[in-house]
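Dear colleagues,

As part of the handover before I leave the project, I'm documenting each prediction I ran so the next person doesn't have to rerun anything. This entry is a single chain, and its sequence is reproduced below.
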Amino acid sequence: MIEIYYPHKDIEGKWQAHWEATRQFETADTTTRPKYYVLEMFPYPSGKLHMGHLRVYCIGDTLARFKRIQGFNVLHPMGYDAFGLPAENAAKKSQIHPRVWTEQCIESMKQQQRRLGLSYDWTREVVTCRADYYIWNQWLFLQFYKHGLAYKKRAPINWCEQCQTVLANEQVISGKCWRCEERVTVRNLEQWFLKITAYADRLLDDLNRLEKWPAHVKTMQRNWIGRSEGVMVEFQIADSGTLLPIFTTRPDTLFGVTFMVFAPENPLVMELVKGTDYEQEVKRFVNRVVLEDRFTRTAEDRQKEGMFIGRKAINPVNGEEIPIYIANFVLMEYGTGCIMAVPAHDQRDFEFARLMNIPIRVVIQPQGETLDPDHMASAYVEPGVMVNSGKYNGKDSVRAQQAIADDLISRGLGKRTMQYKLRDWLISRQRYWGTPIPMVYCSRCNIVPVREQDLPVALPEEIRFSASGNPLAQSRDFVETKCPECGGPAQRETDTMDTFFDSSWYFLRYCDPHNKVVPFDGKSVNYWMEVDQYIGGVEHAILHLLYSRFFCKALHDLGLIDFDEPFEQLLAQGMVTKDGKKMSKSFGNVVDPDDIIESYGADTARLFILFASPPEKELEWSDQGVEGCYRFLNRVWRFVQSNLNVIQEGGVAASQHSPIPGSNPADRELYRLVHRTVKRVTLDIGDRFHFNTAIAAIMELLNGLYRYALRDDADSKALLWYSIQRLLILLSPFAPHLCEELWAATGNPHSISTEPWPPYDEQAIAAEKMLIVVQVNGKLRGKVSVAADLTEEQIKQAAFQDERVLKHLEGRTVERVIYVPGKLINIVL
């Protein structure tokens, strides 16, 4: 541990108390200043900050402080995504109510956030598990329901027979229940959905408007939505009149179909095998495969698994009967949950056919080649010449696509269509700690929405967590109610909402957090939105960001807001690693932010987290890097304290005459360095988010101040004061506590947070010129004008680029170059 030179504990506590007492960071909606809304993704209140939290909060806070000083009206709020499974697990394990556990965790995290000196407007705090927030979840759900965007249908779910309950995916560990370790199966139950697919095209097309989003995030959303143009082809189940629509983007391969594959979770599978010898084996396969992660199942290197289910289908283009399989690589989410398999021309189909000994038929040959299906090492997926395709033989495969599609449509066997991987959003969760879905079930009136004036449907405080199943379903007081329409006995919906519902609009509530009439006032939300800068992990690139975009489009269509995209600019920060691995308890490489703050101070933690790496890259933790940042802050402290009298006198002098230097070289050099640094920091923070290079520039300025203080010809106290003031302002977004303390010490009566950001003078930055005489073998051959701050090597290069000099060097060998500083260069041949 290195010795502490400046009293960071006293300084940080002092200024945090001052900011709170003076309500420094509270934001007004009415102002003549331009608005800037900067937002970090709000956390789940686990009770303790980790370095990933620290990084995202420091990025956001630095930007918020920078924009305030630049003159913007900054909205920088914080809240907690407080519903979810961990609180319910804690209740079951420790017999503590989820609300109590959650509120304790929130208070603990908030204290850590305050210790970091984060400039949040805490009056706008949003906590999703409190009724004053989730009442508006329920209100929004009712608006969606009224407009056909919320509906109920049957869907497959994870089921634990031992616990008699539905399990979320995260409650299934290696195919077993997290609580009793019973093998989990799959059942079809009635579930609530939001109709996000109604917005698939807009969600996809409007990605082109998001010019300030990372390209890889937009690509992830495009792939998730997965729009494809193709043909829906009508196959038929053999020995049945059942038609089976299959979507394909490659009608030119229809003659090469040799089998069909269903997604295991396709409801038709169990109907097709019901009462057959295949039923039990199929059921076991389905229950095992559907629990696997969709990305794992469809990974290219994933071992293909499947089985024949004893049924066949009829290919409409040639009348052939083809066997029907189920396999792990087909998902219900895409197309109709069933694919036609063309092993000669699709790699996954090819691998599965080889595994299951299914015939392979080539229907597209490369130009000038002949493929032998028995000796193919992989599928041929490029265009070519049609073969084994009836009247289409010899045709170009690309052109044949159109002709085959037209033929199918004319015969009533197909139609052109668009398909999406995106599926409607299942929001039902069979657990207590979430927003109750505001619907009731009446034997006379069927499904009835709760009246808006009766909201919120509150979670019952008296609840048992020891019983099996959904705790809400066990509460008679909660379940039994009256029908809003007929007044007769009814039962409440006992499902709660997916917590992604909560986080899909919280950024709107920040704009008007105390409104008790509507979720947000249109004037306030239209003033602040869109969020100018949103910051969070790339792991949220799809679900949270996609759902938030969907909400904004739906709310816009309902007339509640004037915009339809939530986030103008997105920064997806990289993870924090140590010893080459992600920080994790399992790796034993976790660094506790509290330990760093205690030993080195919040400013050191903030500075290191921003200096060690660009924000979008991974950050490798370094104890030496932390100590280096701490030493730098100590150097700032020592310089100001050791020169305090001179600086204070300089402030007086600067009030009487301009600190702009005259002809003194030392003064001019420092003045130029100050303005060069202001420009670099301004551009690096505001335009590029290059916080690390901005900090490096401030370090260079401090080095320049130390050099200036040691020079015999440095005699301007006003310039020293002027330079220190600018260094502190530039450093304050990164290390606000230290800068506030030194700002006050140098004679400023107001907070540094209210001081305007300094402009930079391009004329001052431009280096002074000097004229260098160029000789060749001692004779004058030219003159070059160069910047006075160039190195010797740069000046020599300028001399060799002068055309008058070059003509005397043609065909000659240079033996050496003599440089007389500031005067001449002699090139000896």
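The chain has a mean pLDDT of 91. The chain is about 40% helix and 20% strand.

All the best with the project,
I.
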